[in-house]
Amino acid sequence: MSKLTLGSYPHLLGFEQLERLLERSSKAGNEGYPPFNIEQTSDFSYRITLAVAGFAESDLSITVEDRQLVIRGRQTEDMDGRVFLHRGIAARQFQRMFVLADGVEVGEAIMENGLLHVDLTRAMPETVVQTINIRKG
């Protein structure tokens, strides 16, 4: 049995990029850490919130790479003579990736109370009606 692709459907022209996008997002390698929420804040805006307790702003980086929002965190080990009897809070790094649709722009990022908020806006789509003239061949 052959794998069905978007190219298998004759009425879906030019959607090869969407297929690559779906494949890329499934391989994003996101684990369950850190936990996050995605909320719709208006008809054309969203907010991604990550729980990043223990991270300082300088420990975090936010980039957009090839239509992917990439949020990375790396804490520095500060062991200055500290002796742990139990260590349940690990200083670990993370990388979260979110695939962005065309027209979605990353706005500001805000850190408050151990939560990192990243605001996104989507441009309002423009309705275009085009008439194609038929010429005699």
From TrEMBL:
Superkingdom per UniProt: Bacteria
PROSITE patterns: SHSP
Keyword set, alphabetical order: Stress response
Record-linked Pfam families: HSP20
Signal sequence bounds: none
Every SHSP domain range: 27-137
Family matches, as SUPFAM superfamilies: HSP20-like chaperones
CDD domains, per database record: ACD_IbpA-B_like
Keyword Transport listed: no
Similarity annotation: Belongs to the small heat shock protein (HSP20) family.
Name the record gives this protein: Hsp20 family protein
Native source organism of the sequence: Sedimentitalea xiamensis
